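Lab notes, practical 5.
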Amino acid sequence: MTEKPMPFQIDAAFPGGNIVINRIQHDQIELSQDLRDTDGWWFYWCFRVRGAAGRILTFNFTDRSVIGVRGPAVSGDQGQMWRWLGADHVRGSGFSYAFADDEDDVRFSFGMPYQESHLNAFLGRFRNHPLLQVEPLCTTRQNRSVERLHFGRLESAPGFRAILTCRHHCCEMMANYELEGIIEETLSESQAGRWLSANVEFLAVPFMDKDGVESGDQGKNRKPHDHALDYGETCLYPSVAAVREFIPRWLAGKPTVALDLHCPGPRGEFHEVILCPNRLRGEENWRQTRPFLEALEATQRGPLVFRTADSIRFTTWDGKPSGPPAATFSSWIQSVPGVRFGSVIELPYANAGGREVNQNTARAFGHDLARALYLYLRDGTNRKPDEPDARDG
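Output from the prediction step:
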């Protein structure tokens, strides 16, 4: 008599979880992303499977293709470390996975999720560090605390200020690994780190849509509008209202740059290169942004490659004008006195110019961004990145 396999469980009952189970028939599972309050279609999903050790399961998505170019992300340690399963495991809109005999709790996702727990673990490395402080920005509608991080020159007035925001669209998680890299470089003993921590106070908001991050929402195109489009005359979301109230007072007219860190769509030419989409800003803002991007291109050392030309081509490829949407963070921040530029950086989820985006390479790109900010703020962009300067050392 053949022994019946033990039942397995699929769920999304954990921070960042998102899935709808449509049908389970033996080892075939039909599922779809949970769109909740999304206006239209989007692609984020994240679920776990328990009790499937030793089995091979096939997961088929029923609401269009929602698997990226490197296949699904997989975690065997409750979502801390992730790897790409690979496109060779994907068939159509589904994928199969062979659970090892000791794999009893495995998570799968469109990307590599980053939750409050990841941030807390990262900040634990810098506990009591004199150059990093964690303060509350506000409380969300669901009674969660939104963090604001201050790092760099904190003990007295800096020469410059810099603003970093993440997760205006809560599913765009790779931006947080990028932010970690910026913080690591700034607090390091590198030439760039020493200069930045002596001259720049950074403000970072890791989770603009904290509720969406923890609840596992899409975030993009949230009804009636999402956090990224909440910078109009009135604000729906406490975090946006708090940013709009706090930043002008905090800047006090100091020379400032602002980067809003995002991820693009799931696949396609302009979703698989790192972009600073110049269509989101006006002519003067682009004039101020471009030298920073050229410094980034000249100084980058990590495995992910940024090319200014890609951003220019993205802006002009369809012949549409590049005027900034009125209600975005990057548009609003340009109106604040002292701000040199406010720009969006789009880091792909999995593939950037043919190179793998993952937790480590995203952090490495953050290091590159910090070094580019160092060059840009230190003395403009006319000097080559490796040229010595008497002020260093």
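Observations recorded by the TA: The chain is about 25% helix and 25% strand. The radius of gyration is 21 Å.
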